[in-house]
Design brief:
It contains six helices and two strands. It is mainly α. It has a two-stranded parallel sheet. The longest helix has 20 residues.
């Protein structure tokens, strides 16, 4: 939860996402408020031991079910040894190989 705002600041696209989906670790009311001021809607299921009233309803959590697509992408990127070991010292080169890995995954899927 502590790295969400740092990660959003380090994004390589210009616009902030409209919705951000996280797991139970991202269930935090201060994080929800902080992201809402930036125009980002946080979607995360509540922890089981939550003391405060629930803020998420079932409609928003339906999007959480499709989170497996992102998890699967990271698993597929794990098949590229160069990304797992991280031979590249410069972040620009590493990011280029991540993008190349995504392109290869897309080409394998649709060709």
């Amino acid at each position: 939860m502590t790295l969400v705002e740092t990660t959003l600041d380090q994004r390589f696209v210009d616009d902030l996402p409209g919705k951000l989906i996280g797991d139970r670790a991202y269930d935090s009311d201060p994080l929800d408020v902080s992201l809402a001021t930036q125009g980002v809607e946080m979607i995360a299921p509540h922890r089981r031991n939550r003391k405060k009233p629930k803020t998420q309803d079932g409609r928003k959590l339906r999007r959480y079910k499709r989170r497996w697509k992102v998890e699967r992408l990271f698993a597929w990127l794990g098949n590229f040894r160069r990304l797992v070991v991280r031979y590249e010292h410069k972040i620009e080169n590493f990011l280029a190989f991540v993008k190349l890995g995504c392109i290869i995954i897309l080409l394998r899927k649709y060709l």
